[in-house]
Specification:
Strand content: 5-15%
Number of strands: 4
Largest sheet: 4 strands, mixed
Shape: elongated
Order of helices and strands: HEHEEEHHHHHHH
Oligomer: single chain
Strand order of the largest sheet: 1-2-4-3
Number of domains: 1
Length: about 280
């Protein structure tokens, strides 16, 4: 409960940044438009967040005959977690990864990449699915999806306003200083807030996964494999950067500064926490 309140507080700050950008770009009219957009984004996300995330990542439905082991693992874990069984999807992505989406446990989905099913052992796959079900059980998927869309929208608005000149206090608001602050500081601040939301929820989902499986080594080994593949230089081909915070591990490896502001905590720290949970 406290964790979800923290996530909502951070989402509130991100929404404030979004409104500030609207004000700095378009004055009072920009503020009103940003408010309407924020309400629209959150409303659309509430009803369609799963469809948006699945479509953007080229996910296709999986049947029991397509992946009997995956369905068996998911069914057993949902029984332990007292959750309805989510819809299962697969993406054509060759690098291993997975994400959960949906507005609540009754309207949720878990998508795995083709590479995940080809790379992991049963215990490792169980750990990954338990982690994604942890997000659903903790009800943080919806918040993270909105955060991803708002952060992406902030960057888009700043780029758009820069190209077209922005507002210069035409309607009693905006002005050059707020415009410059929004252009330089807002995208960085939005990224930091999104990072804080995502990192917090990843640790929590890892802990929930250990509770469900009782096998910390399975999840730890899965994360280690994902890290090894990333270190070899393999980059995601079909996954979308805007939704990187939803994946179990960041599929886009960058330079030192990019990794510092990554939406995911370092794999080594996650593995350390996972192994400590198992003691």
């Amino acid at each position: 409960m406290i964790q979800n309140l923290k996530l909502l507080f951070l989402l509130g700050i991100l929404t404030f940044i979004f409104l500030f950008v609207g004000y700095s770009v378009g004055g009072q009219s920009g503020l009103i438009l940003a408010l309407l957009l924020a309400i629209g984004i959150q409303g659309i996300s509430f009803w369609n967040s799963d469809k948006i995330a699945l479509s953007m990542n080229q996910a296709q439905p999986l049947t029991v005959s397509d992946a009997p082991e995956l369905y068996a693992i998911t069914r057993e874990l949902c029984k332990r977690a007292m959750l309805p069984i989510p819809k299962l999807y697969i993406t054509p992505e060759p690098t291993p990864n997975a994400f959960a989406t949906g507005r609540d446990p009754e309207h949720s989905a878990v998508a795995v990449t083709k590479g995940l099913l080809q790379t992991l052992t049963r215990d490792e796959l169980e750990g990954v699915i338990a982690h994604e079900l942890g997000h659903i059980k903790n009800r943080d998927v919806f918040i993270s999806t909105i955060a991803a869309i708002l952060a992406s929208s902030i960057s888009t608005i700043v780029q758009f306003s820069y190209f077209f000149g922005g507002s210069r206090d035409r309607e009693g608001g905006g002005g050059i200083i707020p415009f410059l602050v929004s252009a330089i500081i807002a995208p960085i601040a939005a990224l930091i807030i999104q990072m804080m939301i995502s990192r917090s929820r990843e640790y929590q989902a890892d802990a929930t996964a250990i509770e469900l499986t009782g096998k910390p080594l399975g999840l730890a080994n899965a994360l280690a494999k994902l890290e090894q593949i990333s270190q070899k230089g393999y980059q995601a081909e079909t996954l979308q950067p805007a939704f990187s915070s939803l994946y179990i591990a960041n599929p886009f490896r960058g330079d030192f500064f990019s990794n510092l502001l990554s939406t995911h905590p370092p794999i080594s720290k996650r593995i350390e926490r996972i192994m400590n949970c198992g003691k």
